[in-house]
Amino acid sequence: MEANRVTEIKVAHLHPDQVQRYEQLHRDIPAGNERHMREAGIVSLRIFREGLTLFMIVESDPSLALPDRVIDHALEEEWHLLTGKCFSKVWRDASEIYQLHEATS
DSSP secondary-structure letter at 16? Predict the structure, then answer.
């Protein structure tokens, strides 16, 4: 199952006065949002913060995505509106510059 996994790293920046709001929003994510992520094949999603910079690590497995899933656009739009106000720079892909591979014998 690990062979199907895809890892993405994203970076965003918060407005200085929105740090607490952003963290509060993530303390109680609506169950529907988490269900949407799982139905999309997301196995793990972690967000880290250093100052105003956010790092998101998303691990997904496309083989776990439900092909006929129904997306609640209103729910997703509401979440993006709530969190979007917090960003001075929205999520963008981070470039990988190094990867340590497993040792071979």
Answer: G
